[in-house]
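Dear Dr. H.,

I hope your travels went smoothly. While you were away I took the liberty of generating a structure for the chain from your last submission, since the lab meeting agenda had it listed for discussion. I wanted you to have the full record in hand beforehand rather than looking at slides cold. The sequence, exactly as received, is reproduced here:
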Amino acid sequence: MSRAFVKETEGDTDGLPDRPISPHRNLVTEAGLAAIDAALERFEMEHRTAADKGDQGAAAAASREVRYWRARRASAEVVKPLDDTSTASFGMTVSLRRDDGREQSFRIVGEDEADPSRGTVSYVSPLARAVLTHGRGETVVIGAAEAFILDVR
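The corresponding predicted structure, in token form, is as follows:
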């Protein structure tokens, strides 16, 4: 019988594909580095627990996360916000007013720490790229609209 029709072992989950790693530099805030360390510790513990219980699927999933977070930890570059707040840069909070009058504030952070629902955006996001190197009082283009930078801190 052809091997194509033979069922592989049921617990064969070692072949989980790795999580994709961004091609961008892994810039992080100090809090972002601490979050990477916490995630790595959590998934290492989950892997040990799953392995002790013989749960191959959970062990493989945790192992995948451990590989991802180890790679992110190894490539992490901590960037402290500049003292000069005349222009937006990594780690800073930017407040702006959009064309429709909405005001928005967000902090520019690393990719793994970005969470727009919590007011943080990745430095490689279109929003952050639009305001980086621009300062208070400047108008920037975001997509098809414009926004006025109210504050950089």
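Two observations you may find useful: The longest strand covers residues 145-152. Confidence is low (pLDDT under 50) at residues 5-13.

With kind regards,
E. W.
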